[in-house]
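Appendix C reproduces, verbatim, an entry submitted by the partner laboratory led by Prof. M.T., so that reviewers can inspect both the input and the predicted structure.
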Amino acid sequence: MKVDRLVTAPNMITTVRLLCIPLFVYLLFGRDAHFWAGFVLGLLGATDWVDGYVARRFNQTSTFGAMFDPTVDRLLMLVGIVSVIIDHSAPLWFAWIILVREVLLSAFVVAITALGAKRMDVTWWGKCGTFFNMMAFPYFLFAAEESWTSTWRSIWKAIAYGCAVPGLVFGLLAAGQYLVRGREALALGRAERDVSTA
């Protein structure tokens, strides 16, 4: 059962992930350390599941955590994409498509939630898209590391594209799913509200 608790192990894990975002920005722009910036970004993306698992495993789910975790995930994604765009570490067409998708989808979810839609869970396609994209950007950063040889940079770039293509496809499919499910969630939310006020 979800309760309104702030100080829980999952929320602390999410807070640590949040505090690591400035570290990523510092490594990329302050130290020009593309490898370590990519490493931190990849680590933050790879540990996305940890806080949710701990919450379910130890019965520490909370209403705050249910909002805090996806908010941090979205912030991480946006900061990571914008930083890579500024640094020109990844193909701009790819980074801009992912960024526009994230912004429009977030605005859509906020809008329908404000209109009374029921909460939508993340879809399988959405999780896959986020996973591949959060792997693609660190690999693009690895490829931009000047200390690597040209061979290694080419290898990292090939791996990055290997993640970027399915990430882009899954992400766009998930966006279509959210649009359909969003309309359904809005209709259900309004129906429940009408029943409760009747």
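The chain has one domain: 9-197. Additional entries are available on request from the coordinating office.
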